Amino acid sequence: MVSLLSLYLGGGAELLFGSVKEHHVTLPNQSEPWDMKQLLVWIRGNMLKERPELFVQGDTVRPGILVLINDADWELMGELEYELQDKDNVVFISTLHGG
Amino acid sequence: MCQVDEEYNGQLEHRVTPRVSKKCVKCKENTAVLIIRAGDAFCRGCFKEYFIHKFRAMLGKNRVIFPGEKVLLAVSGGPASSSMLSQVQEGLSRDAPKKLRFVPGIIYIDEGGASGQSMEERERAVAQLESVFRATNYHYHIVHLEQVLSLPSSVLDAGSSATEKPQTGSSYKAAVDQFIQTKKNQHPDLSVENAQSHLSSLSMHEVENGVTSPITPEHTQALQKLFASVRTLTAKEDLLHTLRQHLILHTARTQGYTKVMMGDSCSRLAIKLLSNISLGRGASLATDTGFSDPRYGDVVIVRPMRDYSSKEIAYYNRMFDIPSVFIPGLDTKAQDKASIQHLTESFVTKLQTDFPSTVSTIYRTSEKLHTACPPQNTNTQPFAKCLLCVCALDTKLEEFSAYQATLISEQLSQRRGPASSASQGQCCSSGGGQHQGCMTGEGGCCSSAKSTVDLKSLLCYSCRLTIKDMVNALPQYILSEAERRKRRSQMREEISEFLLDEEEDEAIPRVNGSL
Predict the structure, then answer these.
(1) How many Å apart are CA B105 and CA A6, to the nearest integer?
(2) Residue B53 DSSP one-character state
(3) pTM
Protein backbone atom coordinates (compact mmCIF):
# COMPACT_ATOMS: atom_id res chain seq x y z
CA MET A 1 0.00 0.00 0.00
CA VAL A 2 1.51 3.25 -1.00
CA SER A 3 1.17 5.82 1.68
CA LEU A 4 1.24 9.43 0.79
CA LEU A 5 1.78 11.30 4.00
CA SER A 6 2.02 14.93 4.84
CA LEU A 7 4.32 15.70 7.73
CA TYR A 8 4.42 18.96 9.58
CA LEU A 9 7.11 19.97 12.06
CA GLY A 10 6.70 22.72 14.59
CA GLY A 11 8.04 24.26 17.74
CA GLY A 12 11.67 24.06 16.70
CA ALA A 13 11.68 20.46 15.49
CA GLU A 14 12.10 21.78 11.96
CA LEU A 15 15.66 22.78 12.84
CA LEU A 16 16.62 19.14 12.63
CA PHE A 17 15.11 18.81 9.18
CA GLY A 18 16.85 21.69 7.48
CA SER A 19 14.33 24.28 8.71
CA VAL A 20 11.63 22.94 6.43
CA LYS A 21 8.31 22.66 8.17
CA GLU A 22 6.11 20.87 5.67
CA HIS A 23 7.04 17.62 4.01
CA HIS A 24 5.10 15.37 1.70
CA VAL A 25 6.49 11.88 1.64
CA THR A 26 5.66 8.71 -0.18
CA LEU A 27 6.56 5.65 1.78
CA PRO A 28 7.95 2.72 -0.13
CA ASN A 29 5.75 -0.27 -0.73
CA GLN A 30 5.77 -3.12 1.69
CA SER A 31 3.49 -6.05 2.40
CA GLU A 32 2.35 -5.14 5.90
CA PRO A 33 0.86 -1.73 6.50
CA TRP A 34 3.12 0.94 7.88
CA ASP A 35 2.81 1.74 11.54
CA MET A 36 4.19 4.63 13.54
CA LYS A 37 7.14 2.70 14.81
CA GLN A 38 8.31 1.94 11.29
CA LEU A 39 7.61 5.50 10.25
CA LEU A 40 9.90 6.80 12.96
CA VAL A 41 12.66 4.48 11.87
CA TRP A 42 12.16 5.62 8.30
CA ILE A 43 12.23 9.29 9.27
CA ARG A 44 15.37 8.76 11.25
CA GLY A 45 17.06 7.10 8.34
CA ASN A 46 15.87 9.29 5.50
CA MET A 47 14.83 12.69 6.68
CA LEU A 48 16.72 13.67 9.78
CA LYS A 49 19.63 15.87 8.84
CA GLU A 50 21.39 16.05 12.19
CA ARG A 51 21.28 15.08 15.87
CA PRO A 52 18.86 12.18 15.67
CA GLU A 53 18.86 11.82 19.44
CA LEU A 54 17.02 15.12 19.69
CA PHE A 55 14.06 13.66 17.81
CA VAL A 56 13.95 9.92 18.28
CA GLN A 57 14.82 8.13 21.47
CA GLY A 58 14.91 4.37 21.28
CA ASP A 59 11.66 3.21 19.77
CA THR A 60 9.66 6.33 20.26
CA VAL A 61 9.93 10.07 19.95
CA ARG A 62 11.94 12.05 22.45
CA PRO A 63 9.91 13.10 25.52
CA GLY A 64 8.60 16.57 24.93
CA ILE A 65 7.60 16.06 21.32
CA LEU A 66 3.87 16.07 20.78
CA VAL A 67 2.57 13.88 17.95
CA LEU A 68 -0.77 14.52 16.29
CA ILE A 69 -2.29 12.18 13.73
CA ASN A 70 -5.02 13.86 11.71
CA ASP A 71 -5.24 16.54 14.38
CA ALA A 72 -5.83 14.09 17.19
CA ASP A 73 -3.49 13.11 19.99
CA TRP A 74 -1.66 9.94 19.06
CA GLU A 75 -2.28 8.55 22.52
CA LEU A 76 -5.88 8.17 21.49
CA MET A 77 -4.91 6.30 18.35
CA GLY A 78 -2.63 3.75 19.90
CA GLU A 79 0.68 5.62 19.83
CA LEU A 80 3.28 3.47 18.14
CA GLU A 81 0.90 0.73 17.05
CA TYR A 82 -1.28 2.98 14.94
CA GLU A 83 -1.43 1.86 11.35
CA LEU A 84 -0.94 4.59 8.82
CA GLN A 85 -3.60 5.21 6.22
CA ASP A 86 -3.20 6.88 2.90
CA LYS A 87 -3.17 10.69 2.98
CA ASP A 88 -2.73 10.84 6.74
CA ASN A 89 -1.43 14.03 8.26
CA VAL A 90 1.18 13.61 10.98
CA VAL A 91 2.35 16.57 13.02
CA PHE A 92 5.38 16.66 15.31
CA ILE A 93 5.53 19.66 17.63
CA SER A 94 8.40 20.13 20.00
CA THR A 95 7.19 21.54 23.31
CA LEU A 96 10.67 21.95 24.71
CA HIS A 97 11.21 25.50 23.65
CA GLY A 98 8.89 27.36 25.91
CA GLY A 99 7.23 30.71 25.50
CA MET B 1 8.13 -8.26 49.76
CA CYS B 2 11.47 -6.54 49.84
CA GLN B 3 13.62 -9.03 48.05
CA VAL B 4 16.47 -8.60 45.66
CA ASP B 5 14.83 -10.15 42.60
CA GLU B 6 11.38 -8.71 42.69
CA GLU B 7 8.99 -9.80 40.03
CA TYR B 8 6.64 -6.95 39.38
CA ASN B 9 5.39 -7.96 35.97
CA GLY B 10 1.74 -7.38 35.63
CA GLN B 11 1.30 -5.80 39.03
CA LEU B 12 2.51 -2.31 38.31
CA GLU B 13 0.06 0.01 36.63
CA HIS B 14 0.58 -0.09 32.94
CA ARG B 15 -0.40 2.92 30.88
CA VAL B 16 -3.26 1.64 28.81
CA THR B 17 -3.19 2.92 25.27
CA PRO B 18 -6.81 3.03 24.22
CA ARG B 19 -7.68 1.48 20.92
CA VAL B 20 -11.32 2.34 20.64
CA SER B 21 -12.02 6.00 19.94
CA LYS B 22 -13.01 7.55 23.20
CA LYS B 23 -15.75 9.99 23.82
CA CYS B 24 -15.11 13.37 25.33
CA VAL B 25 -15.41 13.21 29.09
CA LYS B 26 -17.19 16.53 29.25
CA CYS B 27 -19.90 16.53 26.63
CA LYS B 28 -19.85 12.77 26.18
CA GLU B 29 -20.98 13.17 22.59
CA ASN B 30 -18.11 14.09 20.34
CA THR B 31 -15.03 12.06 19.68
CA ALA B 32 -12.13 13.00 21.83
CA VAL B 33 -9.09 14.47 20.17
CA LEU B 34 -6.73 15.25 23.03
CA ILE B 35 -5.72 13.72 26.34
CA ILE B 36 -4.91 16.19 29.07
CA ARG B 37 -3.32 15.39 32.40
CA ALA B 38 -3.59 11.75 33.32
CA GLY B 39 -6.43 10.59 31.18
CA ASP B 40 -9.10 13.20 30.53
CA ALA B 41 -10.01 13.13 26.88
CA PHE B 42 -11.58 16.25 25.45
CA CYS B 43 -13.20 16.99 22.14
CA ARG B 44 -12.21 20.05 20.18
CA GLY B 45 -15.04 22.33 21.26
CA CYS B 46 -14.83 21.43 24.93
CA PHE B 47 -11.07 21.86 24.88
CA LYS B 48 -11.36 25.37 23.51
CA GLU B 49 -13.88 26.30 26.18
CA TYR B 50 -11.71 24.78 28.88
CA PHE B 51 -8.65 26.63 27.65
CA ILE B 52 -10.31 30.01 27.48
CA HIS B 53 -12.06 29.54 30.77
CA LYS B 54 -8.85 28.69 32.56
CA PHE B 55 -7.27 31.98 31.57
CA ARG B 56 -10.20 34.05 32.78
CA ALA B 57 -10.44 32.00 35.97
CA MET B 58 -6.76 32.50 36.70
CA LEU B 59 -7.08 36.25 36.36
CA GLY B 60 -10.33 36.29 38.26
CA LYS B 61 -9.14 34.15 41.14
CA ASN B 62 -6.07 36.25 41.81
CA ARG B 63 -7.48 39.66 41.49
CA VAL B 64 -4.52 41.88 40.96
CA ILE B 65 -5.35 43.52 37.65
CA PHE B 66 -7.41 46.67 37.97
CA PRO B 67 -9.76 47.79 35.24
CA GLY B 68 -8.19 50.42 33.05
CA GLU B 69 -4.70 49.54 34.13
CA LYS B 70 -1.85 49.45 31.64
CA VAL B 71 -0.48 45.95 31.38
CA LEU B 72 2.65 45.02 29.46
CA LEU B 73 2.62 41.61 27.79
CA ALA B 74 6.06 40.10 27.48
CA VAL B 75 5.98 38.11 24.25
CA SER B 76 9.03 36.15 23.20
CA GLY B 77 7.41 34.70 20.11
CA GLY B 78 7.27 31.23 21.60
CA PRO B 79 4.09 29.18 21.92
CA ALA B 80 3.16 30.07 25.48
CA SER B 81 3.47 33.84 25.15
CA SER B 82 1.77 33.84 21.74
CA SER B 83 -1.04 31.87 23.30
CA MET B 84 -1.21 34.39 26.13
CA LEU B 85 -1.46 37.20 23.60
CA SER B 86 -4.34 35.51 21.82
CA GLN B 87 -6.11 34.88 25.14
CA VAL B 88 -5.79 38.55 26.02
CA GLN B 89 -7.24 39.48 22.64
CA GLU B 90 -10.03 37.01 23.20
CA GLY B 91 -10.74 38.36 26.66
CA LEU B 92 -10.73 41.98 25.61
CA SER B 93 -12.90 41.51 22.55
CA ARG B 94 -16.26 43.13 22.72
CA ASP B 95 -18.37 40.05 22.43
CA ALA B 96 -16.84 38.19 25.35
CA PRO B 97 -19.15 37.96 28.33
CA LYS B 98 -17.69 39.82 31.29
CA LYS B 99 -14.83 41.02 29.20
CA LEU B 100 -11.51 41.87 30.74
CA ARG B 101 -10.82 45.50 31.14
CA PHE B 102 -7.26 46.66 30.98
CA VAL B 103 -5.06 48.41 28.45
CA PRO B 104 -2.47 46.05 26.99
CA GLY B 105 0.88 46.78 25.42
CA ILE B 106 3.36 44.29 23.99
CA ILE B 107 7.09 44.07 24.44
CA TYR B 108 9.44 41.84 22.50
CA ILE B 109 13.10 41.56 23.41
CA ASP B 110 15.43 40.62 20.61
CA GLU B 111 18.10 38.44 22.17
CA GLY B 112 19.83 37.48 18.96
CA GLY B 113 22.97 39.33 19.99
CA ALA B 114 23.49 37.04 22.94
CA SER B 115 22.63 33.77 21.21
CA GLY B 116 24.86 34.47 18.24
CA GLN B 117 22.35 35.05 15.49
CA SER B 118 23.14 37.07 12.41
CA MET B 119 21.50 40.43 11.79
CA GLU B 120 19.44 39.07 8.89
CA GLU B 121 17.99 36.28 10.99
CA ARG B 122 17.13 38.71 13.74
CA GLU B 123 15.52 41.15 11.34
CA ARG B 124 13.51 38.37 9.79
CA ALA B 125 12.22 37.23 13.16
CA VAL B 126 11.41 40.80 14.17
CA ALA B 127 9.53 41.38 10.92
CA GLN B 128 7.48 38.23 11.41
CA LEU B 129 6.60 39.21 14.93
CA GLU B 130 5.80 42.77 13.96
CA SER B 131 3.19 41.54 11.53
CA VAL B 132 1.65 39.49 14.33
CA PHE B 133 1.67 42.47 16.69
CA ARG B 134 0.20 44.81 14.14
CA ALA B 135 -2.73 42.49 13.68
CA THR B 136 -3.59 42.90 17.36
CA ASN B 137 -3.78 46.69 17.19
CA TYR B 138 -2.06 47.08 20.50
CA HIS B 139 0.86 49.36 21.11
CA TYR B 140 4.08 47.35 20.94
CA HIS B 141 7.74 47.86 21.78
CA ILE B 142 10.63 46.06 20.14
CA VAL B 143 13.67 46.26 22.36
CA HIS B 144 17.09 44.87 21.56
CA LEU B 145 19.10 43.24 24.30
CA GLU B 146 22.05 45.49 23.39
CA GLN B 147 20.17 48.36 24.95
CA VAL B 148 20.71 46.84 28.36
CA LEU B 149 24.22 48.25 28.26
CA SER B 150 22.89 51.78 28.31
CA LEU B 151 20.24 51.48 30.99
CA PRO B 152 20.23 54.00 33.83
CA SER B 153 21.23 52.61 37.19
CA SER B 154 17.93 53.67 38.68
CA VAL B 155 16.37 50.58 37.14
CA LEU B 156 17.76 48.54 40.02
CA ASP B 157 15.91 50.54 42.63
CA ALA B 158 12.98 48.66 44.01
CA GLY B 159 10.28 51.27 43.57
CA SER B 160 7.73 51.80 46.26
CA SER B 161 4.62 49.75 45.76
CA ALA B 162 1.63 51.70 44.60
CA THR B 163 -0.91 49.95 46.80
CA GLU B 164 -0.93 47.28 49.42
CA LYS B 165 -1.50 43.83 48.03
CA PRO B 166 -5.22 43.13 48.18
CA GLN B 167 -5.99 40.06 50.21
CA THR B 168 -9.75 39.86 50.32
CA GLY B 169 -12.54 40.93 48.02
CA SER B 170 -13.38 44.07 49.89
CA SER B 171 -9.88 45.40 49.92
CA TYR B 172 -9.59 44.62 46.20
CA LYS B 173 -12.53 46.92 45.59
CA ALA B 174 -10.90 49.54 47.76
CA ALA B 175 -7.68 49.14 45.84
CA VAL B 176 -9.52 49.48 42.54
CA ASP B 177 -11.20 52.66 43.73
CA GLN B 178 -7.93 54.11 44.85
CA PHE B 179 -6.37 53.23 41.51
CA ILE B 180 -9.18 54.85 39.56
CA GLN B 181 -8.88 57.95 41.70
CA THR B 182 -5.17 58.35 41.05
CA LYS B 183 -5.75 57.77 37.37
CA LYS B 184 -8.46 60.40 37.27
CA ASN B 185 -6.10 62.88 38.82
CA GLN B 186 -3.63 62.26 36.06
CA HIS B 187 -5.93 62.01 33.06
CA PRO B 188 -9.24 63.55 33.91
CA ASP B 189 -11.07 62.62 30.73
CA LEU B 190 -9.62 59.33 29.54
CA SER B 191 -11.92 56.43 30.24
CA VAL B 192 -11.02 52.89 29.31
CA GLU B 193 -12.88 52.90 25.99
CA ASN B 194 -11.45 56.24 25.02
CA ALA B 195 -8.00 55.06 25.92
CA GLN B 196 -8.31 52.01 23.71
CA SER B 197 -9.64 53.86 20.68
CA HIS B 198 -7.05 56.55 21.29
CA LEU B 199 -4.35 53.93 21.24
CA SER B 200 -5.62 52.16 18.16
CA SER B 201 -5.84 55.39 16.20
CA LEU B 202 -2.32 56.21 17.23
CA SER B 203 -0.93 52.77 16.68
CA MET B 204 -0.10 53.32 13.04
CA HIS B 205 1.68 56.54 13.83
CA GLU B 206 3.41 55.28 16.91
CA VAL B 207 4.67 52.13 15.27
CA GLU B 208 7.87 54.00 14.60
CA ASN B 209 8.06 54.93 18.23
CA GLY B 210 7.47 51.33 19.20
CA VAL B 211 10.59 50.18 17.40
CA THR B 212 13.66 51.55 19.06
CA SER B 213 16.69 52.97 17.37
CA PRO B 214 18.77 50.59 15.32
CA ILE B 215 21.79 49.17 17.05
CA THR B 216 25.34 49.30 15.85
CA PRO B 217 27.64 46.32 15.49
CA GLU B 218 29.75 47.74 18.32
CA HIS B 219 26.85 47.32 20.69
CA THR B 220 26.41 43.74 19.57
CA GLN B 221 30.09 43.08 20.04
CA ALA B 222 30.05 44.56 23.53
CA LEU B 223 27.12 42.35 24.41
CA GLN B 224 28.82 39.29 22.99
CA LYS B 225 31.93 40.07 24.97
CA LEU B 226 29.83 40.30 28.08
CA PHE B 227 28.39 36.88 27.49
CA ALA B 228 31.67 35.39 26.36
CA SER B 229 33.22 36.36 29.68
CA VAL B 230 30.84 34.01 31.46
CA ARG B 231 32.24 30.53 31.45
CA THR B 232 29.29 28.24 32.04
CA LEU B 233 26.05 28.02 30.11
CA THR B 234 24.17 27.93 33.40
CA ALA B 235 25.50 31.33 34.38
CA LYS B 236 24.88 32.66 30.88
CA GLU B 237 21.25 31.66 30.97
CA ASP B 238 20.88 33.14 34.43
CA LEU B 239 22.50 36.38 33.35
CA LEU B 240 20.34 36.56 30.22
CA HIS B 241 17.26 36.12 32.31
CA THR B 242 18.33 38.88 34.70
CA LEU B 243 19.17 41.34 31.93
CA ARG B 244 15.89 40.58 30.20
CA GLN B 245 13.98 41.31 33.41
CA HIS B 246 15.80 44.61 33.80
CA LEU B 247 14.92 45.65 30.26
CA ILE B 248 11.27 44.74 30.70
CA LEU B 249 11.16 46.57 34.00
CA HIS B 250 12.75 49.67 32.52
CA THR B 251 10.33 49.73 29.60
CA ALA B 252 7.38 49.22 31.91
CA ARG B 253 8.48 52.06 34.15
CA THR B 254 9.22 54.55 31.41
CA GLN B 255 6.05 53.82 29.46
CA GLY B 256 3.80 53.85 32.47
CA TYR B 257 2.87 50.18 32.76
CA THR B 258 2.15 48.93 36.24
CA LYS B 259 1.78 45.24 35.52
CA VAL B 260 3.75 42.86 33.34
CA MET B 261 2.31 39.55 32.13
CA MET B 262 4.83 36.79 31.49
CA GLY B 263 3.95 33.66 29.56
CA ASP B 264 5.48 30.99 31.77
CA SER B 265 3.57 27.74 31.41
CA CYS B 266 3.09 25.11 34.10
CA SER B 267 5.77 22.85 32.70
CA ARG B 268 8.22 25.69 32.41
CA LEU B 269 7.56 26.81 35.96
CA ALA B 270 8.00 23.29 37.30
CA ILE B 271 11.38 23.13 35.56
CA LYS B 272 12.21 26.59 36.84
CA LEU B 273 11.34 25.59 40.39
CA LEU B 274 13.67 22.62 40.40
CA SER B 275 16.49 24.36 38.60
CA ASN B 276 16.24 27.38 40.91
CA ILE B 277 16.75 25.10 43.87
CA SER B 278 19.83 23.73 42.16
CA LEU B 279 21.08 27.24 41.45
CA GLY B 280 20.80 28.31 45.06
CA ARG B 281 17.72 30.48 44.69
CA GLY B 282 15.60 28.52 47.11
CA ALA B 283 14.91 31.58 49.23
CA SER B 284 13.03 33.32 46.44
CA LEU B 285 11.09 30.33 45.10
CA ALA B 286 7.73 31.79 45.95
CA THR B 287 8.30 35.00 44.00
CA ASP B 288 10.05 33.31 41.11
CA THR B 289 7.29 30.81 40.43
CA GLY B 290 4.20 32.26 42.03
CA PHE B 291 1.37 33.98 40.27
CA SER B 292 2.38 37.51 41.19
CA ASP B 293 5.89 38.72 41.73
CA PRO B 294 5.97 41.94 43.74
CA ARG B 295 9.70 42.29 44.19
CA TYR B 296 10.03 45.38 42.00
CA GLY B 297 7.55 47.35 44.03
CA ASP B 298 5.84 49.59 41.54
CA VAL B 299 5.70 47.03 38.72
CA VAL B 300 4.11 43.69 39.52
CA ILE B 301 4.89 40.65 37.40
CA VAL B 302 1.97 38.34 36.78
CA ARG B 303 1.97 34.82 35.31
CA PRO B 304 -1.47 33.97 34.01
CA MET B 305 -0.36 30.95 31.98
CA ARG B 306 0.97 29.05 34.95
CA ASP B 307 -1.83 26.54 34.91
CA TYR B 308 -1.34 25.36 31.33
CA SER B 309 0.94 22.46 30.46
CA SER B 310 3.06 22.83 27.33
CA LYS B 311 1.10 20.06 25.67
CA GLU B 312 -2.17 21.97 26.01
CA ILE B 313 -0.60 25.14 24.71
CA ALA B 314 1.01 23.41 21.72
CA TYR B 315 -2.22 21.68 20.84
CA TYR B 316 -4.29 24.85 21.14
CA ASN B 317 -1.87 26.81 18.99
CA ARG B 318 -1.96 24.14 16.32
CA MET B 319 -5.71 23.70 16.32
CA PHE B 320 -6.68 27.34 16.39
CA ASP B 321 -3.88 28.74 14.28
CA ILE B 322 -2.16 30.94 16.81
CA PRO B 323 0.86 32.45 15.09
CA SER B 324 4.11 31.87 16.87
CA VAL B 325 7.67 32.30 15.74
CA PHE B 326 10.40 29.91 16.70
CA ILE B 327 13.57 31.73 17.70
CA PRO B 328 16.59 29.67 18.70
CA GLY B 329 18.02 30.52 22.09
CA LEU B 330 21.16 29.93 24.06
CA ASP B 331 20.48 26.27 24.71
CA THR B 332 19.06 25.20 21.37
CA LYS B 333 20.56 21.89 20.30
CA ALA B 334 22.75 21.87 23.37
CA GLN B 335 23.79 18.66 25.02
CA ASP B 336 21.63 17.40 27.81
CA LYS B 337 24.18 18.25 30.48
CA ALA B 338 25.17 21.62 29.08
CA SER B 339 23.52 23.61 31.84
CA ILE B 340 21.57 23.02 35.01
CA GLN B 341 18.41 24.43 33.50
CA HIS B 342 18.68 22.22 30.42
CA LEU B 343 19.37 19.12 32.46
CA THR B 344 16.42 19.80 34.71
CA GLU B 345 14.22 20.30 31.67
CA SER B 346 15.14 16.95 30.18
CA PHE B 347 14.74 15.29 33.59
CA VAL B 348 11.27 16.63 34.18
CA THR B 349 10.11 15.99 30.61
CA LYS B 350 11.32 12.41 30.69
CA LEU B 351 9.67 11.80 34.03
CA GLN B 352 6.47 13.32 32.74
CA THR B 353 6.09 10.75 29.97
CA ASP B 354 6.08 7.86 32.38
CA PHE B 355 4.35 9.59 35.28
CA PRO B 356 1.95 12.12 33.81
CA SER B 357 1.22 13.78 37.12
CA THR B 358 4.80 14.98 37.67
CA VAL B 359 4.37 18.51 36.46
CA SER B 360 1.06 19.07 38.17
CA THR B 361 2.43 17.76 41.48
CA ILE B 362 5.36 20.14 41.31
CA TYR B 363 2.98 22.92 40.39
CA ARG B 364 0.70 22.24 43.29
CA THR B 365 3.67 22.19 45.63
CA SER B 366 4.78 25.56 44.33
CA GLU B 367 1.31 26.96 44.92
CA LYS B 368 1.71 26.25 48.60
CA LEU B 369 4.87 28.34 48.86
CA HIS B 370 4.39 31.77 50.31
CA THR B 371 6.95 34.37 51.16
CA ALA B 372 7.11 35.10 54.85
CA CYS B 373 6.47 38.80 55.11
CA PRO B 374 9.68 40.53 56.13
CA PRO B 375 9.50 42.84 59.14
CA GLN B 376 8.36 46.28 58.14
CA ASN B 377 11.72 48.00 58.42
CA THR B 378 12.67 47.48 54.80
CA ASN B 379 12.40 51.24 54.40
CA THR B 380 15.42 51.79 56.55
CA GLN B 381 17.45 49.25 54.59
CA PRO B 382 16.91 50.07 50.95
CA PHE B 383 19.72 47.81 49.84
CA ALA B 384 18.75 44.68 51.67
CA LYS B 385 17.82 43.51 48.20
CA CYS B 386 20.12 41.73 45.80
CA LEU B 387 21.72 44.01 43.22
CA LEU B 388 20.91 41.80 40.24
CA CYS B 389 17.72 39.93 40.95
CA VAL B 390 16.14 42.37 43.41
CA CYS B 391 14.94 39.72 45.82
CA ALA B 392 15.70 39.81 49.51
CA LEU B 393 19.27 39.05 50.43
CA ASP B 394 19.51 35.62 51.93
CA THR B 395 23.12 35.64 52.96
CA LYS B 396 22.99 36.73 56.54
CA LEU B 397 25.50 34.56 58.25
CA GLU B 398 23.80 32.71 61.03
CA GLU B 399 25.16 30.02 63.27
CA PHE B 400 24.74 26.50 61.94
CA SER B 401 23.03 27.59 58.76
CA ALA B 402 23.62 25.79 55.48
CA TYR B 403 25.22 28.95 54.17
CA GLN B 404 27.81 28.95 56.90
CA ALA B 405 28.62 25.33 56.08
CA THR B 406 29.13 26.25 52.42
CA LEU B 407 31.52 29.04 53.33
CA ILE B 408 33.54 26.86 55.68
CA SER B 409 33.99 24.15 53.08
CA GLU B 410 34.98 26.78 50.53
CA GLN B 411 37.63 28.19 52.84
CA LEU B 412 38.95 24.75 53.64
CA SER B 413 39.30 23.81 50.02
CA GLN B 414 41.01 27.09 49.16
CA ARG B 415 43.59 26.81 51.89
CA ARG B 416 45.08 23.87 50.07
CA GLY B 417 45.48 25.70 46.78
CA PRO B 418 48.34 28.03 45.87
CA ALA B 419 48.04 31.59 47.09
CA SER B 420 46.74 33.16 43.93
CA SER B 421 45.48 36.43 45.36
CA ALA B 422 48.95 37.90 45.49
CA SER B 423 49.38 37.59 41.75
CA GLN B 424 46.28 39.63 40.92
CA GLY B 425 47.60 43.09 40.32
CA GLN B 426 45.82 46.33 40.80
CA CYS B 427 43.41 46.24 37.96
CA CYS B 428 41.45 49.22 36.67
CA SER B 429 39.63 50.09 39.88
CA SER B 430 37.20 52.92 40.39
CA GLY B 431 36.72 55.51 37.72
CA GLY B 432 33.87 55.05 35.33
CA GLY B 433 35.78 55.63 32.09
CA GLN B 434 38.24 52.91 32.88
CA HIS B 435 35.60 50.24 32.93
CA GLN B 436 35.39 50.49 29.17
CA GLY B 437 39.12 50.10 28.88
CA CYS B 438 38.96 47.04 31.06
CA MET B 439 36.40 45.37 28.88
CA THR B 440 38.25 45.88 25.63
CA GLY B 441 41.75 45.52 27.01
CA GLU B 442 43.60 42.65 28.59
CA GLY B 443 41.38 39.76 29.31
CA GLY B 444 43.45 38.37 32.11
CA CYS B 445 43.70 41.29 34.45
CA CYS B 446 40.19 41.54 35.75
CA SER B 447 39.02 40.47 39.19
CA SER B 448 40.86 42.69 41.49
CA ALA B 449 40.09 40.95 44.75
CA LYS B 450 38.83 44.08 46.43
CA SER B 451 36.00 44.85 44.03
CA THR B 452 34.92 41.19 43.91
CA VAL B 453 34.46 41.13 47.64
CA ASP B 454 32.57 44.38 47.67
CA LEU B 455 30.14 43.33 44.97
CA LYS B 456 29.57 40.01 46.71
CA SER B 457 28.10 41.64 49.75
CA LEU B 458 25.42 43.22 47.58
CA LEU B 459 24.28 40.01 45.91
CA CYS B 460 22.24 37.02 46.90
CA TYR B 461 23.84 33.61 46.97
CA SER B 462 23.00 32.46 43.47
CA CYS B 463 23.83 35.80 41.81
CA ARG B 464 27.26 35.56 43.41
CA LEU B 465 27.80 32.25 41.68
CA THR B 466 26.68 33.71 38.37
CA ILE B 467 29.09 36.60 38.35
CA LYS B 468 32.03 34.76 39.82
CA ASP B 469 33.88 34.99 36.51
CA MET B 470 32.90 38.36 35.28
CA VAL B 471 33.21 41.22 37.71
CA ASN B 472 34.59 43.94 35.51
CA ALA B 473 32.62 43.02 32.44
CA LEU B 474 29.25 43.76 34.01
CA PRO B 475 27.21 46.45 32.31
CA GLN B 476 27.86 49.98 33.45
CA TYR B 477 24.56 50.57 35.16
CA ILE B 478 25.03 47.63 37.50
CA LEU B 479 28.51 48.73 38.48
CA SER B 480 27.52 52.32 39.13
CA GLU B 481 24.57 51.20 41.22
CA ALA B 482 26.92 48.93 43.15
CA GLU B 483 29.24 51.88 43.78
CA ARG B 484 26.36 53.96 45.00
CA ARG B 485 25.21 51.29 47.44
CA LYS B 486 28.71 50.77 48.76
CA ARG B 487 29.09 54.48 49.40
CA ARG B 488 25.73 54.60 51.12
CA SER B 489 26.55 51.69 53.39
CA GLN B 490 29.91 53.22 54.25
CA MET B 491 28.20 56.46 55.09
CA ARG B 492 25.65 54.59 57.13
CA GLU B 493 28.40 52.95 59.13
CA GLU B 494 30.06 56.26 59.80
CA ILE B 495 26.96 57.92 61.13
CA SER B 496 25.43 54.83 62.69
CA GLU B 497 26.05 55.97 66.21
CA PHE B 498 24.12 59.15 65.52
CA LEU B 499 21.09 57.44 64.08
CA LEU B 500 18.16 56.90 66.38
CA ASP B 501 16.82 53.40 66.58
CA GLU B 502 13.11 53.03 66.35
CA GLU B 503 12.79 51.55 69.82
CA GLU B 504 14.84 54.33 71.37
CA ASP B 505 12.68 56.83 69.61
CA GLU B 506 9.58 55.68 71.44
CA ALA B 507 11.29 55.44 74.82
CA ILE B 508 12.50 59.02 74.72
CA PRO B 509 9.64 61.29 75.69
CA ARG B 510 8.91 63.71 72.93
CA VAL B 511 9.83 67.31 73.56
CA ASN B 512 7.65 69.89 71.93
CA GLY B 513 9.42 72.58 69.98
CA SER B 514 12.93 72.52 68.65
CA LEU B 515 15.84 70.92 70.47
Answers:
(1) 38
(2) H
(3) 0.79
